[in-house]
Every structure is written in C-alpha cells, then in structure tokens.
Amino acid sequence: MVDIGQISILIALVVSIYCSVVSFLGAKFKSSELMLSARFGLYSVPMILLISIISIIYAFVTHDFSVLYVYENSNLSMPSAYTWVALYAGNAGSLLFITFLLSILSVCGILSIRNKLQYALPYTVGILSILLTFFIFVILVFANPFDRLDLVPVDGLGINPLLVHFGMFIHPPVQMTGLISVSIPFAIILGVVLSGKGSDDLWVDIGRVWGMISWTMLTIGLMLGSWWAYTILGWGGYWAWDPVENSGLMPWLAMTAFIHSIMVQKYRGMFRMWNVILVVIGFTLAQLGMFINRGGPVPSVHSFAASTLGWLFLFFMIATLISSVIIIVLFRKFLKSDRRLDSIISKESVFLAQNILFLLIAFFTLWGTIYPVFSESVSGETVTVGKPYFDLVNGPLFLGIIFLMSIGPIIPWRKASFNQLFDVLKMPGLGFVTCLFILFFSGIRNPLALIGFSICSLVIINLLQEWIRGIRLRHRGGEAYFIAFFKLLWANRPRYGGYIVHIGIVMFSVGVIGSSFYSSQKDFSMSPGDSNIFGGYNFKYINFTNENYSDRNESIAYFQVDSNGKPIGVLTPFRAFYPQFRIAATRGAINSTPKEDFYIVPSQFEDDGSGVFRVLINPMIWWMWVSAPVIIFGTLFSLFPGRKKSKKKSI
Amino acid sequence: MIKKNLSKINFDYKYSLFIVLYILIYLTSCSGYEEDNFSNRTTKLNKNIMCPVCPSETIDQSQNILAVQMRSIVKEKINEGWTDLQIKNFFVERYGASVISTPPKSGIDLIAWIFPPVVATITIIGLYIFLRSIKGDENPDE
Questions:
Q1: Residues 286-315 of A with CB under 8 A from B
Q2: How does pLDDT run across A517-556, given as a tens digit for each residue?
C-alpha cells in the first residue's frame, strides 16, 4: 500500500511536468489538442494525489511504523480520529496535504474560467502545473512521507499533545487552504496577462471571486487560530505577532487590498496594473509563509522542527516573483487604465490610500519578522521583535484604515468638490466629535482607545446613514420599509455585502481595542477553600480533582464564581501534564458575555491543589468572535451570483 | 444623482445617530477596573520579557518551568524595590538582548525603530504628491 502511494506521487510528478510543458507549447503553437491534453492532465492530478493520501492514511490506521512519517507522528495509544490530524501535523505530510489542496483548487479554478476566459486557459493551466510540479518535486526529493525505516519500531513517537485537540481538525486545513488558494487568482490573472488580453476586463469578476474566496479562507483561518489560542492555549491573549501568525496575516493584508481595488477596476476600469501587482504580492507573501513555517531562520511556536526546506521555498518564491515582474513589464501596455484618477477627493483615491496603508502594514510586519535575522547578520547579536513593537508600529495604521473605512462609502466616485466634501463630512465629523466627548466624559481616557472607538462609531454612523437613505428613497417609491431594506441589499450585493463585512470589522475592532487597552489581569495564590475578589467578580476555589488517563494526568480546579452578587456557576480550569512528552498544557475557563470575559487559568498547580491562578477580565472580546459569522455572511452575500454579469459604469 | 443624494444626508443622519448613541453608552462599560500598581507592573514586565527557551513566547504566556521561575524573579525584584529598567537589565545580562521583546533603542538596532515611521511618512507624502499632481483629465466617459 505504501508503495502505491510512493508510485502515485511519482506519476503525479510526471503528469504535472507534462502539463506545464505541453500547455505552454499548446499556447505557442496554437494547438488546441495540446492545450486540451494539458488541461485534462491537470484534472487527473487530484485523483492521483488522492491515492497517495489514502495510502498514507492506511499506513496510519494500520500502525505501519516502518514508514518514518507514521512513526514520527503517531503511536498506538492515539485515538484513530487523530490519524487525520497526524496527516498534516508533520512537515512531509502537511506538504502532501497542501499539494493535494492545490491540485483540487487548480481544477476548480480551471473549471471556473473554462468558458469565460478561454484565451487565458493554456497559460493558467501551465502556471498551476508549474506550481504543482514544484511542490510534488519537493515532496518526492526532500520531504517524502513514504520514506521507510530499516528497523521497524514497536511503537511510534506520537504527536505533540497540544495538537490533540478538536481545533486541530479545522484550523490548519483552513489556514493551509487559505494560503495555497492565493495561487488560483494569481495563476488566473497572470494567465490573462500572458495571453495579452489584460485590457479586456472580463477577468475582473472571476479574479474578484477567487480573491474573495482565498480572502475568506484566510480570514476564517486567522480567526479560528486566534480563537483557539484564546480559549485553549491558556494565556488569555489571542494574537502574539508570532512569525507564523504574521506569515498568515501578510497575505491576508495584501488580499484585502486586492479585493477592494479590484472593485475600482470593476466599476471604473482603473487600477489594472495595480491589481495585478497586488495579487503577485499576495502570492509572494503566501509563499513567504511557507518559507517561514518550514525551517526558515525565525523561531516560532508553529514551526515544523528541524526542516531546512524553507530555503527551497525562498528560492522558489524569488523565482516566481522575478518571473511575475518580468511578465508584468513585458505586457504592461495591456494593463493601462481606461482613465486616470480625476481628483484627490474621490472614492478612487480613498481606495488607493487604503491599499497603501494595508501594504504598509504588511511591509512593517515583514520588516519586524525578518529584522532579527538582519540584526544578527549585521551586529552578531540576536534581538527579539515582539508584540509591543508590532502594536506600536501597526496600531496607528490600522486606525487609519478604519478611518478610511468610515469615509470611503460616502465619498462619491470620480470627483467631488471641496464643497461637496464638506457637505458629506459635515455631519459625520460632528458625530465623531460628539462621540469623543461622550466617551471622554464617561471615563474612557486613553487617547488611542478614545479615537479608536469614535472612529468605529463613525463607520457605523455612515453605513447606517447610507442604508437609511436608500431605504427611504425606495419607501417613497411605494415599498414598505421592511421590504425596501431587503430589496436595497439585494439590488447591489457586492456593495452591501461589503458593508456587512465592514460592520463585522467594526465589531472585531471594538473587541481588539477594548481588550488591548482595558484588560486587567492578576495572579492569585489559592488553596481549596480560598476565595478572592477581582473586578467585581467573587470567585471561590471549591475543590480539585486529579484524573489519570493513558497519556496524561489532569488536575481540574472547581471555582464558584459570582459577578456582583449574581451567581455565574462553576468554572473548571485545568492543567494536563503529558509525562511522555514532558509538556504541560493549561486550559482556561471562560465566562463570556458581550460586556466582558471572566477568564481563569492555572499557571502553577501543586499536588495538594494549591496553586497560582491567573484571572483576566477582558472587555468586549466577545465581539471579536461574534464578528466572524457576520464577516463570512457579508462575504458570501456579496459573492452571491447575480443575473447581470458586468455592471461596469452603472454606478 | 450624487447631488440629489447629498441634500438628503442631513435628515437621515439623525436616525443613525440615535442607534450609535446607544452603542456608545454600551462602550463606556469598558472604562476598566482599578488595578493595583504592583500587579500592573509585573504583568507589564512579564509581557515584555521573552522566555529564553520557548520560541517567541513571553514569560507571561509560557508555561515552561523557566518562565515560571522568571515570573517569580520579576515579582521578587519589584518587591525589593528595583526599577523596571534594572529588572530588564538583570535578565539581559543573563540571557542577552533577545530576552527583551523589543529591539534595544540604541546602536544599530535604532534602525528597527526609525525605519517604519520614515517609510510611512515618505509613502504617505509620496501618495499625496501623486494624488495632487492629478490634473482632472477631461475624459468624456459619461
């Protein structure tokens, strides 16, 4: 069975090399047979890779420890459901998994442009095949999950116990899909450029849809990751600016810029070149993530241990970046805008400014992530670039983006005079100042939090105003308010879906601002029977239990918690110790309300039940997690296909 | 179209302001709790000191034995009346500059701090100059 997997990877390599060569040849000689052959070849790759996935799963299920990867990532006591997790928990397996995802997404991508963008087809197939070839080659030569051991061990090493968690089933696959899916808009758009039809805006809609798909996957991946960190990893935070977190954030930033500026192309026929550049940046940053994750030079909690594959990915990243730049330069005449910007005061300029801010954040994040390497090579001394640095550098830029988010929707396209601008901004400006005053006098004194909350309110004010205006206009046309609301939303889904996402982002920002400026934490030494008070919460340590499992010992504490006299119930934070790995994992217990979270986690636990418990009160953090469904709903809403395809110039 | 819409804004604006007022009153529940100076300082220091043996985790985050020890050293030193800087230097002497979560603000590492604001300023000024240079080209597309 293992040999079948091995052989099918080899076949996949041959097929994808064939596809990349033949597809470009087909395009050169305009031979539809060659193009078709390459396309169908690509269709077969996911099937072939599926065979190797199945065979490695089979090896896991049958505990075939003669396979090195199975030996390293599983053991006899592991629940069999975690076989699936073990598949992508290690370096070689995750590469195979990513390649498999890429092949499926490639087929979907090709199918989506098969009819509409025929001219780009051979190039897109070629680009995707090259990507697949690279990945499969790396698997086969450098990280083969089918490598065998000469001596067959009795039991495997097992996976890191921190990974044995339900979140592991969702977060990594989604995050990997997000990162690798950036390849699809990249390949489609570059394919269009190569075919010399860049000026033909037919690709805008498909490019936008694929951009949003990978944006959504990245968003879900990042959200799940931070939710997991917050609820499970037990340090009370959700984002640490760890190098691997950053490498997931950077492509997200670039893709956010992309899905906004592609709207300018959709409606105004501008920013063509810029959009191509953005998607190339997004793709490059996604690859950089691979480099950092797979034994790049920066240490991280997430890294795959002892893998030097990173440099290979870095090399490939540079190669694709250089070839993309060459392609863009060669075909630049097809990427000219239909028209230039009319005015500094216009929706177009707000989009451009927003793009620049997103790229700046991505750039500074990159800078901070790789700075330790730079510093070490220059001065020989290692330094750390951690959370306080990133908060300081990127925080103001994020505020700037939220500010643009507030004024962007109400500034007209093309050109507005100063008088118009004044008219548009008069009331929101007043509202902003009012917000500042109200918040200030009710006790919010931190200037950044003050400005942050006020800008968030401004976004809501302006969006509601847009909505109410539209509804009233429709109401005057004879529709009931309620129906007018839905019809308004439905009539312009890309726009109103976007607004729904904006509301989600405001909810998220409120959570971030509230929890970063107003969270309080304190450590309490407590033994069973003690009680303490913190921030209006009264918590009593009732008792504790020890439970022994085959792989771990759990010490569970029971706390009776009241909030200002109102009983909340019993919270049970616990600490698990895995003797085999010598790893301790703590899990916090959370009482979450829209106002604030009460979070208790053991940081030290003695045998007699006494220990140090950390208590955190995190205001508004509930909103961060609730924003996720809102954001996803908004994205899906704006993606929902309409009957009319191109609505260019209709606004 | 645009002009007609603009004239409507002031009126509709009132409605949205009411809703937002409600949100604002809600937000003020954020104003926070009194914390004692001691745990404030320990938390702040813990969040700025890295655990030397755990990749990119602060001692505040990490459950490693060394991190736990370092946390209690921080507490001890504060009780003994050390300043934040003294405590940080104490750890730097033992574990090197990388034990602090941000690069030092001196010597070559000043670049890390100067670079972002300089780049941001140049970019934003550049963007402004670019946008200013636009001469509304009389493109008859409408």
A1: 298-301, 303
A2: 888 888 888 999 999 998 889 999 998 898 888 778 888 9
Between positions 440 and 479 of A, the ones with CB within 8 A of B are 442-444, 449, 453, 457, 460-462, 464-465, 468-469, 472-473
User: Would an 8 Å CB–CB cutoff place A344 in contact with chain B?
Assistant: yes
Model's pTM, two decimal places?
A: 0.89
Q: Which of A484, A512, A540 is the last residue of a domain?
A: A512
d(CA A172, CA A174): 5
Please check whether residue A272 lies inside any domain of the structure: yes
Is A170 inside a domain boundary? no
Half-sphere exposure of A555 (CA within 13 A, CB side): 21
> Contact, A552 vs A577, CB < 8 A?
yes
> Do residues A426 and A465 both lie within one domain?
yes
Strands A553-563 and A566-571: antiparallel
Q: Where a domain ends, among A492, A512, A532?
A: A512
Among B8, B11, B14, B33, pick the best mutation site for testing chain A contact (most A Cβ within 10 A). Answer: B33
Asked whether the beta carbons of A371 and A297 are under 8 A apart, the reply is no
The beta-carbon contacts of A187-190 under 8 Å, at least 24 apart in sequence, are A187/A106, A187/A109, A187/A124, A187/A127, A187/A128, A187/A131, A188/A109, A188/A113, A188/A117, A188/A120, A188/A124, A189/A275, A189/A276, A189/A279, A190/A123, A190/A124, A190/A127, A190/A276, A190/A279, A190/A280, A190/A324, A190/A327
Task: ipTM value, please give it.
Answer: 0.80
* DSSP label of A304: P
How does residue B55 score in pLDDT terms, banded at 50, 70 and 90? confident
Residue keyed to tokens 């007022």: B21
Find the CB nearest A342 among B24, B42, B136: B136
Contact A619 B2 (CB under 8 A): no
**How do residues A224-278 score in pLDDT, each as one tens digit?**
989 888 887 777 788 988 888 898 999 999 999 999 999 888 888 888 889 999 9
Chain A nearest C-alpha distance from B82 (Å): 20
Q: Are A71 and A156 in contact (CB under 8 A)?
A: yes
Residues A432 and A368 in one domain: no
- β-partners of residue A576 are A554, A585
Same domain, A361 and A316: yes
Residue A165: Cβ-neighbour burial (10 angstroms; 0-12, 13-18, 19+):
middle
What domains does chain B contain, in order, with CATH numbers? Answer: 37-128 (1.10.8.640)
Q: How far is CA A306 from CA A159, A160, B55, in A?
A: 15, 15, 13
Note whether A590 and A572 are within 8 A (CB).
Answer: no
Query: What domain range includes position A370?
Result: 184-374
Number of folded domains that form chain A: 4
Q: At A481, phi and psi to the nearest 5?
A: -55, -45
User: Helices A621-639 and A203-231 sit at what angle, rounded to 10 degrees?
Assistant: 160
Which residue of chain B comes nearest to A585, CA vs CA? B63
